[in-house]
Amino acid sequence: MYSLPPNWSIKKPNNSKNNRFYYYDIQRNVSQWLRPFPPPGYEGPWPLYIHCAHILIKHKNVRNPRTHNKQKPQGTVNLTREQALKKIRDLSNEIKKGNRTFETVASKESDCASYSRMGDLRWCATNQLDPAFVARARTLQVDEISDPVESTSGWHIIKRLDGVSGSSQALIFPPEVELEFFVPRKKDSPNADKMFNNIKAKAPELYNLLYLVETQPTVLKYWKDLILLYCSAMLEFTIGHEIYLRGMLYFFPGEYEALSFACQILNRYNNRQLKKEILETALSYTWNPKFWMLWIGEAKHDNIPITDVELRTRMMNNVGFTVNTAQYWLQYISILQDGGFDKNHVLTELKKALDIGLENNGKLIDKLKELEPESVEYYIARQEELRPIVERRKKIISEVLSISDDKAKRLKQDYSNLSGEDDLRQNMLRNFLDLEKTNDAKYSHDLFVQAMDYSYRLAIGVLWWQPSIWLEYWRFLAKEKQEKKAEEILAIGRKAVGDTPLFELRRAQHFINLGEYEKAKEIYTKLLKRPDPLQTSALTLLFKATADLKGEPEAIEIIQQNMQLARPQFFINAAKFCQNSEIAWSIFQMGVDRYPHVNSMIIAAAEFLEQHRDVRNTRLLFQQSLAEKKEQLQFEIKKRLFQFELDHIAPLDHLNETQKVFKSTTVDPSILYMHRFKFMDLYPLDPDELRVWGHLANNGSIDLVENASTDSLYLTNTPPYGCPPDALKRNDKWNDTISTNRRKATTQDNVSGQPGQKRIPREVHHLLKEISEFKIHMAPYNVDIVIQRVNNAEIKDYRQMPQFQAMPPY
């Protein structure tokens, strides 16, 4: 489905009546009859019909202060506006809390006649409902219930009903045919009945064609068939005509056949206003002279009070650079002469044509011989000079005319899906524009501006789906002080590629590159009204632009002005942009104060302190964040603190406190002690620490008993200085238990044929083996392996493993 976002698709239910189809959102698992977004090219309000239920509480100041609910006291409602508001709020709270259902409240409390259908208003055109009601209803998702809304009828609670969650089989009550095809009501048109009967008879074929243009919008025949069939049923011009015509032109912006067909349809209904709009839009960006000839013909058809000279002058100023327009130039010169214009004006336009570079311009040279023979030799030489430029443009136009684009693919805005042919075409046009910018034709400034204007429109004929080409064209016009046309191109570009945030962000970047801070700030400020993640991106870019162009102190004011919009990621990004470390830390402090329980915020601030070698405050920040958490501690904070302690090892008394944090996690806190061997020169091991190693012997990780000789009485033969050997005697119970467990594991291997329970990695054993055999202060080479395992959260607490549950305590 190309005219909808990627998560939406179009499907047909089983046994579809009249070839109806529905829309399905895979992300929310929602099916609905109503098109979720306005049709491409249509910019009016949407949807134009809707299915809702509501609860209405009236008060005595509404237009009809009488209840229609027969379960309530009849007669005039006596509630004041404030009393009605309080009542509707109480009902809303009951529904939110689950004390009563929406349907029950609607049946018992609503003053609308729809109470008998549990508030269901059924399908209806939005122009039949109160504007305030419609405005709120349009913002609701399927099954979403609104807060109280006021209209001229009273206070409402609205529920959106035009879809279902889950299976499409639950989709019932589709909109009426006359609503979907915009048939006027009887009171609005004397032909309403006849048009309704026509639409009803043609509905199956209309739905089928509508399905085809939705799923294959780049086939012009389907659009034309749909519009012609719709016209055969509708005796008057409706919003449906406009929607289908705009949709067709959206997918075929550079197709002469599509524009000509649209003009024919609009002439049938004598809709000059819409025809003028679409023609003016097309002429703003087209390079093709055929479009202008169509415009001239339509202007004469509509008897627009404009002379032939004015029509032709505008045409030649826009498309006169097309290499094969010598004939049009000759006609233009003849019209000027016939119009009685003086010789100098005619010569100026004739020389302009010869100075551009055209093919087949022999008759223009002949015309010059009649008017100014002495200039012929120069312009003949000029034509030779311009020949490479003519060939270059001729080749590009030939390529453009040969393109049969699958334009729907462009709407995905996914440049990674472009084919090799697409890449070559883009590169070709980019190179063409780059060469034109060099002005190798040696045009005067005014002529160069016209030439580049034409070249950009030529590129847009192929790259209309790319925001960058519209922005580049707009920037060129703005630079040349053509503000009015620049705004026109900007507006058309937004329609062509969608008024996307990316489009606006690129425009803001253009102003930043020019140093025009206020214009960029205006764009970012508007984008701040959009939801996240765009809001955070816009605020971050606004901060960066302010810091770059105004200074970091002034950028801090941007944060203070928009503190309610600032998210954790914004504080992190903003601080990283700062060159001044004091300002960066002040931003981190604001972020930590605002989001004290967000892990990413705490970790980013701590890493900043750590990078600036502020070990003490880093440790305090981690400890404070852990102390402030009321519920179970977040593992990410613990894990990062653990890594910090590994990188900045502390004395034993501090480690003894720190390791308590990890007792409830899957991280083995003994790694902290083991890592201390890297820092023996600062913090020598003491007997208590070796007793820790001895205690860990019962899990096989520190298995000194296994590797010591059988007659050894001690855990190690090299006790620390000042430690009596008896303090590190072997424990025979540990020996026996470990041996028993080993035998069980071996037996399990033999019985099952599979390896038994894997034992915990023995990095610590290797570490102490190095210590035993060499020197007490030698740094172990296997520690880094263990640290890596800690970082990946793979080391488990041995006490939670089944084979160690029966171990005797130390």
Automatic annotation (TrEMBL):
Keywords, in A-Z order: Isomerase, Nucleus, Repeat, Rotamase
Top-level taxon of the source organism: Eukaryota
Signal peptide as annotated in the record: none
Keyword Nucleotidyltransferase: no
Domain PpiC: residue ranges: 47-162
A GO-annotated cellular component: cytosol
EC number: 5.2.1.8
GO molecular function: peptidyl-prolyl cis-trans isomerase activity
Catalytic activity annotation: [protein]-peptidylproline (omega=180) = [protein]-peptidylproline (omega=0)
InterPro entries cross-referenced by the UniProt entry: PPIase_dom_sf, PPIase_Pin1, PPIase_PpiC, Suf, TPR-like_helical_dom_sf, WW_dom, WW_dom_sf
WW domain mapped to chain residues: 2-38
GO biological process, one term: regulation of primary metabolic process
Enzyme class: isomerase
UniProt entry tagged with the keyword Coiled coil: no
Localization terms from the record: Nucleus
UniProt protein name: peptidylprolyl isomerase
